Amino acid sequence: xxxxxxxxxxxxxxxxxxxxxxxxxxxxxxxxxxxxxxxxxxxxxxxxxxxxxxxxxxxxxxxxxxxxxxxxxxxxxxxxxxxxxxxxxxxxxxxxxxxxxxxxxxxxxxxxxxxxxxxxxxxxxxxxxxxxxxxxxxxxxxxxxxxxxxxxxxxxxxxxxxxxxxxxxxxxxxxxxxxxxxxxxxxxxxxxxxxxxxxxxxxxxxxxxxxxxxxxxxxxxxxxxxxxxxxxxxxxxxxxxxxxxxxxxxxxxxxxxxxxxxxxxxxxxxxxxxxxxxxxxxxxxxxxxxxxxxxxxxxxxxxxxxxxxxxxxxxxxxxxxxxxxxxxxxxxxxxxxxx
Length: 339
Ligand code: CP3
What we know:
The chain is an alpha/beta fold and about 350 residues long. Helix content is about 45%, strand content about 10%. It contains 16 helices and nine strands. Bound molecules: coproporphyrinogen III.
């Protein structure tokens, strides 16, 4: 069993720096497109055998040190009572706008409402046994609220921010309900066998540090505190958090995910001995190999040999990246850090 990823999450020394890529299963892989061409994205998420197959693809193709469950942050929102489609971006038929909408949301029974997620985790633990650890994941309450209130992706999530400022009681009730759901969802993944959990807060960095502290931190903190974390490290990734790392750190968690807007070494100076994950600009994978290698070296130099580094991109891999480039990047990290 390759334990480098989990060891690095706990800040332990490793024989070489572990690496995986956010969104490592997906459309940039022809193997994924082959499976995906026979069903919709949601059908793929809801069929454990297929979800497991595409979860393992990048482990075999890229040689990464961890697998991440194939699903979506919005999977558990559908059984809260919100009709969901992917086109390919997520679309909710009826976004949340009023207190009555919030009150109508259900807290799913994970074993019966999202059995396919838990079955995929169990199946993957069997299939991955001799390979790499399995990461489970969920969205942070704020990022989930962004999609639930807006109804789809957005540049500024103005509907959600309007609710946050102008109808703070509705916002608080919604965030509270999402946090409760999220805690049960992630604990169910842990119980099913997930060996680490990543919390994706893709939009948390769109707020000022003061607003993050007021409107986001209390919920993510309650979520992380409520997880059954013994032996299961929690990676907290807030995109755009570079200017407020000391506040985001208060949410708890074992590993801080970093995007590429921050110098990894400077981030580590602020975070003390908290392990970090990141932080190559995903578009570097469009560069010639010499430049990919230069950028990998730069990030490693910023880390300056400190333990507790998990190499990753600073956000998800883009669908137009040639797989050979991702393979080359993973190989660079392993080759340049081998002890
Ligand atoms: O990392 C992995 O390989 C696991 C799979 C994974 C998916 N979504 C599969 C997916 C993970 C970890 C996610 C997380 C997710 N989903 C986030 C947080 C991370 C991030 O990228 O910021 C967010 C914001 C979403 C919501 C979402 N789902 C969007 C905006 C989209 C459409 C555009 C896009 O980026 O692909 C999706 C659809 C989606 N989720 C696809 C995949 C493979 C594409 C669907 C398809 O095959 O047509």
